[in-house]
From TrEMBL:
Protein name as it appears in the record: Uncharacterized protein
Record's signal peptide: none
Highest taxon above the source species: Eukaryota
Predominant localisation class: other
GO BP terms, alphabetized: negative regulation of cilium assembly
Coiled-coil region: 80-114
Subcellular location(s) of the protein: Cell projection, Cilium; Cytoplasm, Cytoskeleton, Microtubule organizing center, Centrosome, Centriole
Family label: Belongs to the ODF2 family.
Organism: Callipepla squamata (Scaled quail)
Amino acid sequence: MLHRIPCYPTRQITSLSEDLKRKEEHRRKSNDEILGKLNSVNSENEKIFLENEKLKASLDALGISTVSVENDLLSLQEKTKLQKNVVEHYNNQVQELQAEVEVLKSRYKTVFSENRRIRESKCLEVYEVSFAVL
C-alpha cells in the first residue's frame, strides 16, 4: 500500500500540473483577447478623439463664417435701407416735377388760348380795317 500512495500523488500532481498548464494557457489567451480588445478600443477612441478635434475645428470655422455672414447681412441691410431712402427721395422729386409739369401745362394752355384769342382779335381788326379802307 505504501507503494501505491506515492504513485497516486504523482498522477494527481501530473493531472493538476496539466490542469494548471491548461488554465494558464486559457488565462494567457483570455489576456491576449482582452489586450487585443483593449488595443482596438484605444485605437477607436483615438480615432474618435481625432474626429472630435476635426469637428470642433470645423465648428469653430463655421462659427467664424457665421459671424462674417451675419456682418455681411447687416451691411447689406444697411445698404438696402440707404437705397430705399434714395429711391424714396427720387420718387418725391418725380412727384414734385410732375406737379410742376401740370402747372406748366396749365400755363401753356392759358398762354396758348390767350395767344389764339389775341391773333383772332388782330385778324378781326385787320379784316375790319381792310373793309373800312375799301
